[in-house]
Amino acid sequence: xxxFVSKMTLLLAVLTLVLAGCGGDKKSDGEAKxxxxxxxxxELELAVFEGGYGGKYWEQLAEKFEAEYPDxxxxxxxxxxxGELIRPEIIAGNPPDLVYLNQTDPSGVTQGLIxxxxxxxxxxxxxxxxxxxxxxxxxxxxPGVLDSVYMxxxxxxxxxxxxxxxxxxxxxxxxxxxxxxxxxTPETWDDFFAxxxxxxxxxxxxxxxxxxxxxxxxxxxxxxxxxxxxxxxLDQMLNYDPEFWKSDIAIEALDIFEKIAxxxxxxxxxTVGLDHMQSQTSFVKGDxxxxxxxxxxxxxMEGAPMEDGFEFGFLGIPNFDGEDQQLALNSIEQMYIPAExxxxxxxxxxxxxxxxxxxxxxxxxxxxxxxxxxxxxxxxEESLSESSYxxxxxxxxxxxxxxxxxxxxxxxxxxEPRDTLFDQAASVMNKEMxxxxxxxxxxxxxxxxxxxxx
Length: 454
What we know:
This protein has helices spanning 2-35, 56-68, 82-91, 109-115, 123-127, 175-180, 189-194, 196-201, 218-238, 248-262, 276-284, 297-300, 344-354, 357-367, 376-379, 386-397, 417-423, 425-429, 435-453, and strands at residues 42-49, 72-79, 98-100, 162-174, 205-207, 288-294, 312-316, 327-336, 400-403. Strands 1, 2, 3, 4, 5, 6, 7, 8 and 9 form a nine-stranded mixed beta sheet that branches. The chain is an alpha/beta fold.
């Protein structure tokens, strides 16, 4: 009996020590969680497209991340041709851990990974709390962005690409002219066409666009489709449903361009043959009332000859009934984690770190652009030109910004539907093709795509 009691006493003492040790571990774990830096370790490989934003932001962000997470090491490969550089690594099954490269990149790397379902599901990143806020990270992202095909390409409710910087696109005008002549900006397309006489009175055409770069017209067409038919109609167009082109919505949206071409003084003379810089220069010199372009417009035209007192004004895109919000199209830079990445969890934490307020401010200071985060324009206001700030702020407050990107084309399709769509604009503007003929052509193109999808 004595022996049994002794053994029980010893066992209880051991259990007490074990439990005490467990309690100590839990406290340590809690401290580690609060710090956010003790549990993450390893090397993170970043592949970064070095375009107009350069690579400096990524270098400084990496330094800050390593300081916060001292057991990590980040290596960065930054290059204008990053897609071509990482293609062999991806093919060999050894991709970078995190990639910043848009699906429109000529290398086709991002587009290919989307087609092959070669991306890591990022839904947990956005469903979880932000690192510096007690709310889900998804609530910080601009409305509609994560649900768009830019970030959720498979219509399965999951996010596979993360938003970085964004641009806003719509119609631009000379704000000085409108203010001095007390001209009201158009809320509807009827208002827009009613300004034709005003344009004549001010010795300019109503409209011009980047003739040999007709893809700029998507900045009008995509919001017009959304204005008429909402997300359902837009999804039909962007996901290659041939029946979309038989709808009244398609005809009415396309008809905007035929109406411009048909209106006396509607289209600036020579527009179809001008490249983007030529048409934009004509616009800022006062040859046209409106032109489609993006938030980079002012920077791109720095040093160009302009009419006296010219000031960039952003309208967005008119709607059809005057009751809805003004619309604008956005274009969002994309980041992702390849499915075969070696360290996806560390890459996810790096993404979370990017969306903290300090990182957003750092990005604005260096790239002169806001991330696709609600309120980002205010955080980086000092880094933006006045017109750029006004554009982003308007979208984050008064306008509704639409994310619209054509879905990846299936293998074996030898036509690019988006290019075909806008390549027809010249024929419409030259009055060689009607709206109905344009829609019929696109119906046939979408039929080809649909056959491969099936």
